[in-house]
Amino acid sequence: MLQGKEILVTGGAGFIGSNLVNLLSARNSVTVLDNFSSVDDRYIRHLRDRIRIVRGGDITRPEELPVGHFDIIFHLAANSDVRGGGISDPLLDFRVNAMGTVNVLEAARKCDAAVFCFASSSTVYGGEAEKIPTPENYGPYMPISSYGASKMSGEGFVSAYSHYYGFKGLIFRFANIVGRNSTHGVIYDFIHKLMKNPRELEVLGGDGTQKKSYMHVDDCTGGPWSTWQRGLQGLRYSTWATGRSRLS
Amino acid sequence: MRIAEMVIGGGNGPKRRQDKAHWGGKDGRGGWAGDVKYAHLDVEKLFSTGWKNRYSSDESVRVAIRETLSQMA
Description:
The structure holds two protein chains of two kinds.
Chain A lengths: L5 E5 L4 H10 L4 E6 L16 E5 L16 E4 L8 H4 L2 H21 L4 E7 L24 H20 L2 E7 L2 E2 L7 H11 L3 E4 L7 E2 L2 E2 H5 L2 H9 L4 E6 L6
Parallel strand pairs in A: 1-2, 1-4, 2-3, 4-5, 5-6, 6-11, 7-10
Chain B lengths: L1 H7 L11 E4 L14 E2 L4 H4 L9 H16 L1
């Protein structure tokens, strides 16, 4: 596990971010950047004595990004509403997830970060991957949502910047992460509906045939980091599928 | 559908026959633009580093349901 590092976590108040901050802050100096658009500071409030919180920090406004030195940047801040692009504003995904990632990469270059970790998504593959299970080197990417397109763009810029400026770029393609501090997602939505109507659960957004494999957020944030490091083997840029438990 | 039923049962399954989930939307078929129906990642590369996950997929869902219910209480 990491220790003694200066770490910036964007989106550190959110679902995966808050779990990661909780884990890393025990042995590292952690700065959280979050605009609290998805959730307030309720999941990191108890850590305020041992972390630094950049309040109101928005990755779409470069002037609000922290300056100084960071050894590692975990870039998790994003518009995480995959549905929204098709309903209201596909450009939101571009502004926040694509352009926002470039803004954070610019900050990473200026603060001389050694490692840049980017929370990507299985949505980069699109809706009909011909190879199931889908490995990291599957292509071409054909995203069917502006969210997937923006994450695909973000991956591309992490790759380019890692080659320009020499830091390690690590892409984690998350899929179907569940657990505490959730701010959205299937379990969160179902429970909210049941609290309103305990006798009936209407499931919108599907036809009952969806099949997905889930990973608990502790598995997502907990053990893998040290082994991901071992798996780097000197690579400047590396992609890791992180969204399925192998146990049946 | 299994997740809907697990949520109804608080992580264990439906408690009563009349507790059930049904599909909303037109003709019971929802769906939304941009949804990926089948997401199944090959995680062998991650496992090749020696890492082992703690929870299976079903366990992950069950634990997540309990945690979310606890936080909403």
